[in-house]
Structures are given as structure tokens and as C-alpha cells.
Amino acid sequence: MAITASMVGELRAKTDAPMMECKKALTEADGDMAKAEEILRVKLGTKAGKAASRVTAEGVIASFVDGATGALLEVNCETDFVTKNESFLGMASAAAELVAKNNPGDIEALSALAHSQDSYGPTLEDVRKGLIGKIGENMSFRRFERFADGGQVASYVHGDRIGVMVEYTGDATAAKDVAMHIAAMKPVALSSADVPAELIERERSVASAKAAESGKPADIVAKMVEGSVTKYLKEVSLVDQVFVKAADGKQTVGQYLKASNTEVKRFTLYVVGEGIEKKVDDFAAEVAAQVAAAQGS
Questions:
Q1: Residue 8's Cα: distance from chain center in Å?
Q2: Which of 104, 157, 166, 295 could be stapled to 110 by a disulfide with Cβ–Cβ 3.0 to 4.6 Å?
Q3: 264-295, pLDDT tens digit by residue?
């Protein structure tokens, strides 16, 4: 059967595969569109294994809220370009909803949940692998947090890269404002008492080293260190931070919440790629490697 340009175009539209790959698949399938699509699915699926070792430091934060239940999720990819892809964004949104509605215990359990998209399925993991093949980039679910403890839930996502979810009681507007504040000021804990001990010790160690250089008496040095730690705790504790919308430039988040008859029970802040080491490619070395591979073939 003759393979026409329109057939190739139709198959490419369905799979996003390269033109020549579409033509080869149609030829192998003797023009059977469904069979050709299946052939490409198999071929594209092999890309998932090749891509699995590549660093995924870009990505998006997705959120889902349904009444008193919510979920915040980070899904990563290799380049910023993919974060604009509708299929990728659709998978991220669907995954956040699956977390909220199914309460999976971990990423593995989430990946095993039922989900079909873009002709891939029947699980979320199958969709992920299918999109890796279709788009040609590695992508992975990194982390999620589910909120379902009986309180109200508010979320705020800034540019798909910073996501906040807040569990609260009280005023919805105040909760949303505080979620935006968290995205901007990035507190590490709700209050000073909640700041992890290792962060406090690290700050105390730095402050001690600086104070020791002053050459002042030990008792003065001790006061300087404790003063630095106290200042640090106020800077990183949500309720002690100066509220970003404070009209007087002094009102703390705690004071704002009290005035609004609102209490924040807990919050989660995700920043895309936080803590992931990005790969810095040596372009010259990459080109040299490709030339060497071409010469050897």
C-alpha cells in the first residue's frame, strides 16, 4: 500500500514521533494506522529507559483542592520547554487529584493508580512512560503532600514553580493571603518552636564563629550568639515574619491572623528543583563525543 504524506501527517499528529519514524512504522504496518501507532508506541517506549538517568531539575508544582481535602505535588522534567507542554501539565494536574482522592502512601503507590491519558494507561506510571517516549525527555514524580485532617484548605501556586498549601480555620481570604506570603518569604516552619533543631544548630555554629572573631569577652560572645539565633528564628518562622501586605510595614503574620480570627494549622511549601543538582553540560565535550561516535560507526 502506498504511504501518503497525509497518512504520515496524521500519525505524527497522534504520536508526535519524527516524520521518518512515522513513515517507517506505516510501511511496516502496510498502511494500517492503528498498527503503525502501536509500533511507534513500542519504539517510543524504549526512550523511557534511555532517559531515566537524566537529571530532572525543571518541572511544575500542581495543586488540587476539594473541600477540606487537598494535595500539593511536584513533578519534574529536564527542560523548561516541557513545562509548557499540555500533556505534561495534564499529567501533573491528574496526579495531584489522584493524591487527594486516593491517599497513596508514596510515589510508587501513586504511580500504580489508575489513569489514562493521550492513549497511554491504564496506570499513571504507564502515562508517565508514554509521555517520556512521546516528548523525548525524562520526567518523574518527586514528592507530594496530602491535606485531609478536617481543617479548611487553601492553596497558591506562583508561575507553576512555587506551590503552597495551607490548612487553617477561619477566614478564607486571610488564608490565601498567608499562602501568598509563604510563597514570597519562604518560612521554614510555622513558629520558632517548629524550626528543625539541625537548622538552629547550624545557625548557632555560624554565629559562634563570627562572634569569636570579635575578640570580646566570653559572656558578651554568648549573648551575641543567642541574639543572632533569636533573629534567625524570627526570620524563618511564619508567624514571626513581617506580613508582606502589612500596611505599616511592621505587622507580623501572627498579628494579621489574629486580627482575621484565623489560625494556620500547618503548611507545605514546594519550590521546583529545590535541592536537585542540575547537570551542567560541557557542550564541546558533547560534540566531540558525538563526532567520535559517528566516526566509529
A1: 36
A2: 104
A3: 999 999 999 887 755 444 445 545 555 565 55
From the list 193, 240, 249, 15, the residue with the least C-alpha distance to 119 is 15
Angle at 124 between CA 16 and CA 7, to 5 degrees: 20
Question: Measured on CA atoms in the order 125, 126, 130, 136, is the torsion positive or negative?
Answer: positive
As given in the structure block, the three cell numbers for residue 114 are: 489508575
Q: Which residues contact 141 (CB under 8 A, 6 or more apart)?
A: 73, 74, 75, 76, 95, 107, 110, 111, 128
Please indicate, yes or no, whether the overall pTM of this predicted structure exceeds 0.85: no
The three cell numbers locating residue 160: 507553576
pLDDT above 90 (res 208):
no
Higher confidence at residue 102 or residue 55?
A: 102
For 71, the grid coordinates are: 494535595
| Residue 134, burial from CB neighbour count under 10 angstroms (0-12, 13-18, 19+) | buried
Q: Give one DSSP letter per residue of 267-279, joined into a string.
A: EEEEETTTTPPPP
Q: The sheet that has 162-169: what strands, in order across it?
A: 152-158, 162-169, 263-271
252 in helix, strand or coil? Answer: strand
Average pLDDT over residues 247-260: 95
Residue-by-residue DSSP string for 136-165:
-S-EEEEEEEEE-SSSEEEEEEETTTEEEE
Q: CA angle 181-57-177, nearest 5°?
A: 10
Give the Cα separation of 45 and 146 in Å (integer).
Answer: 31
Pairing of strands 58-66, 152-158: unpaired
Question: CA-based diameter of the chain, in Å?
Answer: 92
Tell me which of 44-53, 68-77, 147-156, 173-182 is least confident: 44-53
